[in-house]
UniProtKB/TrEMBL annotation:
Catalytic site positions: Y35
Signal peptide location: none
Gene3D superfamilies given in the database record: NADP-dependent oxidoreductase domain
Cited Pfam families: Aldo_ket_red
Record bears the keyword NADP: yes
Positions of the NADP-dependent oxidoreductase domain: 4-278
Name of this chain's protein: NADP-dependent oxidoreductase domain-containing protein
Organism: Didymodactylos carnosus
CDD domains xref list: AKR_AKR1-5-like
Keyword NADP: yes
Keyword annotations of the record: NADP, Oxidoreductase
Annotated positions binding substrate: H99
């Protein structure tokens, strides 16, 4: 079963869609402190549990949050998770991720730690990834989360964590879709028993100056016709057949049902290979300027 993504799900819409998702059988909700909608997600979870009349319990649902770049110091990470828990109205989350392997200076009312003209970024040099990881391990000891993991980490950044980890990262959440299939990083994580969670799994984001999406790719459309499934269903099935955890975002009830209706067919090996081949395009949609060396978008 896919999980439900919640980035850019409006606070006004996310409560209802989270409730519907859980009642429809979704059991994994992916959120983050920076998305600014955790209070409404919490309401949706609460309502679903209440409406299920005892059939669904808190422990049946897997809830993820992420530590924002300004909260990499252990005390700040604990503050951030407690803040998320407060908003979610929960005692624990199932998974806390380091959202990005980059630390910003903590500047109140300036979440992106940027100068006013946005030309300068204020990085926090006094905290290493290893120290942030130790801070996350303490959150497990304090039972604020059941597990911890990474997001947007490359293999050398993961390697640094593995060298010091007392608790191993359970997942690395990364951009992954037919146009960016991340084969090498997938293999690396597999070798170290770290699962991969695919974000932007449908590649349904506008890039600067174009609106490319694998949903309209002729390869995907032809497979849709062959299997009598939508493009989104073909792509979600491809993720699942690769053993990936997949978290498509939607606030549209009919798509919620569509995205979960992927268990009555199986792509042949040749068809999986033909989607794999689309990865030659190597298109990255999330390319923020704060990751050194990147061209930049979204800020
Ligand atoms: N760790 C990170 O740094 C990071 C970064 C990005 C995303 N994420 C997580 O990953 C989740 C998913 O990624 P994403 O939201 O960027 O992209 P996505 O799930 O690939 O695409 C979401 C977009 O596709 C549309 N959509 C959903 N189902 C569809 C369907 N069946 N047919 C056609 N369009 C459909 C949605 O529209 P409607 O909502 O209008 O239906 C929305 O515009 C996020 O929500 C977030 O939880 C994490």
């Amino acid at each position: 079963m896919p999980g439900l993504g919640t980035w850019r799900s409006d606070p006004g819409q996310v409560q209802e869609i989270v409730k519907q998702a859980i009642l429809h059988g979704y059991r994994h909700i992916d959120g983050a402190w920076i998305y600014g909608n955790e209070a409404e997600i919490g309401n949706g979870i609460k309502e679903a549990i209440a409406e299920s009349k005892g059939h669904i319990k808190r422990e049946d649902i897997f809830i993820t949050t992420k530590i924002w770049n300004q909260y990499h110091k252990p005390d700040d990470a604990e503050w951030a998770v407690r803040d998320s828990l407060n908003k979610l109205k929960l005692d624990y989350v199932d998974l806390v991720l380091i959202h990005w392997p980059i630390a910003f200076k903590k500047i109140k009312e300036n979440r992106w730690s940027q100068s006013e003209d946005k030309k300068e970024r204020y990085y926090e040099e006094s905290i290493s990834l290893e120290q942030t990881w130790e801070g996350l391990e303490k959150l497990v000891e304090k039972k604020l989360t059941h597990s911890i993991g990474l997001s947007n980490f490359n293999s050398s950044e993961i390697e640094r964590i593995l060298k010091v980890a007392k608790i191993k990262p359970v997942t690395n959440q990364i951009e992954l879709h037919p146009y960016l299939n991340q084969k090498e990083l997938r293999d690396y994580c597999h070798q170290h028993q770290i699962t991969i969670t695919s974000y932007c799994p449908l590649s349904n984001l506008k890039r600067e100056g174009d609106s490319v999406t694998a949903l309209n790719d002729p390869v995907i459309e032809a497979l849709g016709k062959k299997y009598n499934k939508t493009s989104a269903q073909i792509i979600i099935r491809w993720h699942l057949q690769h053993g990936l955890i997949v978290i498509p975002k939607t606030v549209t009830p009919q798509r919620l049902i569509e995205n979960a209706d992927v268990f009555d067919f199986e792509l042949t090996t040749d068809d999986v290979n033909s989607i794999d081949k689309m990865g030659e395009k190597n298109l990255r949609f999330i390319n923020p300027a704060f990751k050194p060396g990147n061209k930049g978008m979204f800020d």
